[in-house]
Amino acid sequence: MADEKPLTFEDLMSLQTLDSGEGEQGKEKFMSVRPAFSAGGVAGGAFGGHVYAQAVWAAAQTVGGGMVVHNVHGFFTLPGMPDRPYVYEVTHLSEGKSYCTRNVNVRQPTTPSKSRSRFKEGDAGKVLGKICFSCICSFKRDEKETFKGHQGVRVQERWKEVLGSRNGEAWEKSPGVDAPWYHRQTSASPPPLLPIFPGLDIRKVNMTHHNTSDPLTYRTLSLYRPFGHLPIALPNLHACAHLYASDKNSLFIISNALGFGDQVGKMGSLSHSVVFHVPTSELLFQGRDEEGGKLEWWVQEAWTPTSGQGRGVHESRIWSPSGRHIATTWQEGLIRRAETEEGEKQRLMWEEGMRKDGRLRGRGKL
What we know:
This protein is α+β, with helices and mostly antiparallel strands. The chain has helices spanning about 10, 50-60, 155-160, 160-165, 180-185, 235-245, 250-260, 345-355, and strands spanning about 15-20, 25-30, 70-75, 85-95, 100-105, 135-140, 170-175, 200-205, 220-225, 265-275, 300-305, 305-310, 310-320, 325-335. Strands 1, 2, 3, 4, 5, 6, 7, 8, 9, 10, 11, 12, 13 and 14 form a 14-stranded antiparallel beta sheet that branches. A hairpin with an 8-residue loop joins strand 1 and strand 2 (about 25-30).
C-alpha cells in the first residue's frame, strides 16, 4: 500500500468501446476501465462523482467536433460498487447545428470483477443489474457573444482574508469522508493506510473561524487541479474534471452545518445538476502558477440552503483561478440522522469496508 499513487484523471476516465449489437441504432456502449474511488476500500460504496463525470465523458465520445458539454442533470438510482465496472449506454436524443443532447443509462455487472485495478472487456459480458445512474446531458458549440454577461464578486476577493496568498498545497488534502468521526479515526494514521483519492488533487480550506451554528451561513471552500496532463484537444475531458470535483464530499456540508456529522445514519445522492456558463477556452486547465510551473488552483464554493424530510440540498459555484464563475451546481441528497450509536451506519459501514480491505485492525484501529 505504501507504493499507491493517485491515477491521473485521463487514466481514471479511460473507456472501453463495446459492441452495441444489432438493432441498437442510435445507441453506443462503453465500459469503465478503472475502478471508482471508495473511501471505505473495495468493500465500500463508490464515489458518485466517478459515474457522474464518466457518463458525460462516454456521451462526449458520440458528439461532433466543437460540441462541449454545458448542462448535465443526473439521477442516482442505486449505489455504485467499486469492485466492478460501469457499463454506459448512450442514446442520441437530438442533433443540431449548435446543440445536441444525449441520454446515458448506466448499469453494473451483478458479480464482482476478478481484477481490482483494471477491468477486462469480458466483465461487460456478464449479467448486468438494474440502472444505477441515468443522466441527460446537452452539448453546444461556442458562439459569438451578443451581450455582455454578468457575475458576482469573484470568490478570491470575497474570501481573501481566508485564502490570503497561500498556495493550494498549504491546505490539507480533502478527506475521504468529511465527517468528525473520520478525522478522529484517521488523524494518527499513516497516509498509505488510507485509500488515495484519484484523478484530482483536492484541498480543503479551513473555514473554522467563519462557520458558526447557523447552517445558512455555513460555507466550504475546496481548491483543486488534475493529476497529470489533460490534452487541450479534449475540452470535454476538462469539463468532466470539473464535474468530478463538484461531487467531492458534497452532502457532508449538510450534516456538518446542522451539527450531526457524527450521527449520520444514511447519506446518498439522489440527483445532481451542473451548468457551465463560459466558452470552452475558460474551462481548460492550462494556467500555471509562479512556483514550479504547476497548474493553478480552481475553487468550489459550497453551501446548503435548505433541508428536511430526510433530504438536503447542496449548492455551489465553481470559479477559475482568474475569478471567472464557470459553473453552478445543485444537488439533492438523502440524509438521515442516527438515533443510536448502532444506527450510525455511515461510520460502521466505513469500518467494515476498511477491515475487509485489510486497512483496519480491530475496532477503530488503523
